Fold this sequence. Notes:
10 strands; alpha+beta; CATH 2.40.50.100; four-stranded antiparallel β-sheet
Amino acid sequence: MDYEQIKQLMKDMENSKLESINIELADGTKISMKKENELSAQMVAAPIKTVPQELNIQQNSVDNQNKEVVEQEQNFKTITSPMVGTFYAKASPSASPFVKVGDRVKKGDVLCIIEAMKLMNEIESDLDGEIVEICCKEEDLIEYGTVLFKIK
Length: 152
């Protein structure tokens, strides 16, 4: 892909409703583009509201519970979606799933399929370990970066 084609791709992306796109060409070239939307920038700049002390005490207990969950999840590694598409846990409706919770996987094992533009893309594990959680359901529409699996 030459410079002019890349520039045209950027213009097309700017004029489309797509938020992100990932392209991998046959020669191994990878192109990733992502738009920043104004909504996310506005959400960051939202004013901070004060909360009564009574609610703060309740919030602290919830925060402590959330910290415990976060500490437990820090022991996990995640496998995220490299593209936008539809998640499939099995090769066909009558087939058994590629993996289940508790299965041991090795680097290179197929974990799922993501259908993008009528192409079935096998997603392989880039880690060795045990499947702790499957974060998507059959035929879920997923975005780039969506957590698909948690592995320990």
